Amino acid sequence: MVLKLEDLLDFFQSNLSEIHFGQLKNLKKQQDLIKVEEFLSWARRTKNLKITSYDIPSSILKNSKLHDIKIDSRGPDDKVYDKNEELRLKVARGNSILETNQNGKIDHKLVIYALRKFTGGLGDEDDLDRNSKDWKNYFIRDFSYVRQVFSLQKANGEAAHFSCSWIDGEFLLCSGSKNVHLVFKNKNDLMNFTEQRFSYAKIISETILNFLDRLDTDLKIKFLSFLCLFNLTVVFEILNPDTQHVEDLSYLTEPLLMFITFTSNVIDPKPNSLCSMAPDCAIQIANLFKLNTVKMEIVDHSSIEDHLCKIRKDHSYEGVVLYFLDSEFNVIGLLKKKTAWYIIVRAIREKLRYHTSPKNNASICELETRVKSRLKSIQNWIGFSDKECDEWLALLTQFCQWFDERFKKNFISRDDFSNKFPVLWSKFLDESSLTDKIEISINQNENSTIKNLNENIEKMSLN
User: Fold this and answer.
1) Residue 215 Rama label (left phi>0; alpha psi -120 to 50; beta)
2) Rounded to the nearest 5°, which phi and psi values hold at 276?
3) Alpha carbon of 185 to those of 52, 67, 96, 180, 381: distances in Å?
4) Residue 109 and residue 97: Cα distance in Å, rounded?
5) What secondary structure letter does DSSP report for 244?
6) In angstroms, rounded to a whole number, what is the distance separating the alpha carbons of residues 34 and 41?
7) CB 248 within 8 A of CB 419
C-alpha cells in the first residue's frame, strides 16, 4: 500500500537537514505546463523524433501501451540537439509515456523523464569533436546566475532509469535504458519481453528488483511511495561486468546500479531546473534508501579551473559531470569533463573496433598510422606536450601489436574485445610490465573549455 504523503514527509523531516527537507517539500508544487497527451501529439508531428510503442501484456496491465520517445538520427544525437533549442528543452535522454484505457477513457502518464541532454567541450564527447563553447547552449539560464558547483564522478556504464506508479491498488514499476523501457510488477513479468531490443532493459529491471528484494519491507514501501507521490524518475548508471567499456569492472560479480540524481516527470518547456533537487540533497535521500551513489564533491568558484585541470590529469576513471546551481538550488546547467586517460584509451578501443571488423583488410602499420593521427588530434585538444604524446604513442603502438598478434591467432575473440576490452588492456599492461599512468600537463590554449569557462567564472563573480 502506498503511504500517505503526511507519513512520508514525517520520515523525511526526521532524516533530512532543514535545507534539504525544504527542497523536497517544494517538489509537490510542480505541475505539468504541457499535458502529457499534448506532448505525445507534438512528438508525433515533430521532425527528428521517433516514437516506439508497444502493447503492455494484459497480465501486467490491461488495455495499456508504453510509448518511448527519442531523437531520430543517424549516429550521435548531438547534431540534432545542437541545432534545436525546443528539443533540448523538451526531450530528455529517456522519455516514456504510459497510456491506459479504462472503459473507453484514455489517460496518459509520463512515467520516465530523465536528464535532458548536456555536453562537454573539446575531447569530452565520445563520438564527435565539438566547439569548446557549445556546452553553454545546454544551460537553461545564463552562467552569471551560478552560485554553487557540484562535481559528480561519471560511472563508466550504461544509462538506467527507474520510476514507480500506484495503479489499480498496486505498485507498477517502469525501468530501462536510454531509449527502451518496460513496465512490470515482478520478475515473472519480465519473461513477457522476449524481443532483442528489451535485453538491456531487462537486465536493468532485474537489477532493480534484486535491489528492492534486499531492502526491508518498510523501507521498500517508503522508497516506492516516494517515487509515486513525488512523481520522480531515478537516474542511474548501471555497471555490468559482462559489458565493459573502458574502466575495468572485473571486481563485480553482478550488475551494480550507481545513483546519480532524481528528475521530475513534469513537462515544462521552460524548466527552472534540470534536476528535481540539488545533488547533495538527492544523494542524502539516496543514502536513506541504501542506494549506491557516485562520488560527489563541492567545488569552490575560485577553484573550478584547478578542479577541471586535476580531472584531466587523473587516471583510471571516466571523468566528472559538473552541476551548476543558482541561488534557489536549481540545476541550471551541466558540463562533462573527462580524464585524458579515458579519452586516449577509449580512442584506441574505437580504432581497434574497426580493425576487428570482418570488412577490414588494413595492415597493422595502417592501424598504427590511424592511432597516431587520432592521438595527435587529442593532443591538440588537451594540450599535453610532445614528450607525453610520444610516451602514449609508444604504449598504444605496443598494444596494437600485442592485440593484433593474439587476435589473428584466435587467442582473442571479437566478443572478448566488444565486452571485455578493459580486461584485455589490463592483461596487456601486466604481461608487458608496462603502465598507463603517464603524467600529462595541460595547456590552456585559446580554444579550451577551461579558458572559456574561466571567462564565465569572472562574469559570475561580478554578480
Assistant:
1) beta
2) -75, -25
3) 22, 18, 17, 17, 48
4) 6
5) B
6) 11
7) no
**Do 228 and 171 meet the contact criterion of CB atoms below 8 Å apart?**
yes
CA dihedral over 137, 138, 140, 141, signed as positive or negative: negative
- Angle at 196 (CA atoms; ends 347, 75), nearest 5 degrees: 35
Distance CA 90, CA 86 (A): 6
Model pTM? 0.93
Q: What is the pLDDT along the chain (463 residues), one digit of tens a residue?
A: 999 999 999 999 999 999 999 999 988 766 656 799 999 999 999 999 999 999 999 999 999 999 999 999 888 899 999 999 999 999 999 999 999 999 889 999 999 999 999 998 655 765 445 565 778 899 999 999 999 999 999 999 999 999 999 999 999 999 999 999 999 999 999 999 999 999 999 999 999 999 999 999 999 999 999 999 999 999 999 999 999 999 999 999 999 999 999 999 999 888 999 999 999 999 999 999 999 999 999 999 888 989 999 999 999 999 999 999 999 999 999 999 999 999 999 999 999 988 888 887 778 999 999 999 999 999 988 889 999 999 999 999 999 999 999 998 999 998 889 999 999 999 999 999 999 999 898 765 534 555 566 565 555 544 4
Backbone angles phi, psi at 206, to 5 degrees: -65, -40
CA 278-146-445 angle, 5° bins: 120
* Cα-based angle 397, 403, 408 (whole degrees, multiple of 5): 130
